[in-house]
Design goal:
single chain, alpha+beta, 434 Repressor (Amino-terminal Domain), Endonuclease, Chain A, two-stranded antiparallel ribbon, 12 helices, 9 strands
Length: 292
């Protein structure tokens, strides 16, 4: 299933909620039944069923069991998987993390909450330094390119971005595998303190045991990933499939499990295999640093 980050009124459609809804839609369609049949079984409106199937609202275990029975699902493994997915989704919706203290995350809030719960993030970047590795000055430079950004909003955004990075050094640190196109490391004003500070920070973070930093060199040739950057978010919990997050200047998309996520995982491995080794990547990073 592929979707943008949808919101409707006070409801938010979460990644796991949409995945759960999508599985229930497939079961309903396979059984030849309609939302009206589901609504009658749940003693609910078709509107409520539609919200469930779109991931707008958390789902109760009795409702899932009733729908599985209606749709002729007799495999306890299938029902159990849906119940586990619903449990994780409910817990994620109730979670009150540090991101709730920041009002300007907007549609990045779902991504940040997922990243906070993740065990591994694989990031390919063809345009910018990944958010988990940005310095405050780099963040401010990006924000300055946005029209009508107030200074207070700017500093709050910087603080939120730096708070995200604590996942790399906390008690159970996030594992980060990131591949950067070499052009990203050269996309600074010549001789700028911004470049030196950011490159030094990358070199420092690359020394962490849970951070792998590879560079895809300019002379390695084209590949499909050059058209967009993406993050693959992985979790430890059963039923929590890998999620791919893609972002450009105007749109954000989720790819939730399935063939789409698998294709991006294969693409990431292909890019990483054609990149410089860790030691050669560090050497290139230091050479570029000396040029600034």
């Amino acid at each position: 299933m592929t979707a943008s980050q949808p919101m409707q009124g006070n409801s938010t459609s979460t990644v796991l909620g949409r995945r759960l809804g999508g599985e229930l839609i497939k079961l309903r369609v396979a059984s030849g039944l309609t939302q009206t049949h589901a609504a009658k079984t749940l003693t609910a409106s078709t509107t409520k069923v539609a919200k469930m199937e779109r991931g707008w609202v958390p789902m109760r275990d009795p409702d899932i069991r009733a729908l599985c029975e209606l749709y002729g699902v007799h495999d306890p493994g299938v029902t159990g998987g849906l119940l586990e997915l619903a449990r994780i989704d409910r817990e994620r919706r109730k979670a009150k993390g540090w991101w709730n203290n920041y009002t300007n995350l907007g549609d990045m809030q779902e991504y940040v909450s997922l990243e906070s719960a993740a065990t591994v993030v694989r990031a390919w970047q063809a345009a910018l330094i990944p958010g988990l590795l940005q310095t405050p000055d780099y963040v401010r430079t990006l924000r300055s390119a946005l029209p009508a950004v107030k200074s207070t909003e700017d500093e709050e955004f910087v603080a939120a971005r730096i708070a995200r990075q604590e996942r790399l050094t906390d008690a159970a640190p996030l594992t980060l595998h990131t591949v950067l196109w070499e052009a990203v490391l050269r996309n600074f004003p010549s001789g700028s303190t911004l470049a030196r500070g950011q490159l030094d920070h990358l070199a420092e973070m690359a020394e962490l045991s849970n951070v792998t930093l590879l560079v895809y060199p300019l002379d390695a040739g084209p590949h499909h990933g050059l058209s967009s950057s993406f993050n693959i978010i992985s979790f430890a919990e059963p039923g929590a499939m890998d999620v791919v997050y893609l972002e450009n200047s105007f749109t954000r998309r989720w790819i939730e499990g399935g063939e789409g996520a698998a294709a991006h995982e294969e693409l990431f491995e292909t890019i990483a295999a054609r990149s410089l080794s860790e030691s050669d990547s560090r050497s290139l990073l230091h050479r570029i640093r000396k040029e600034n």
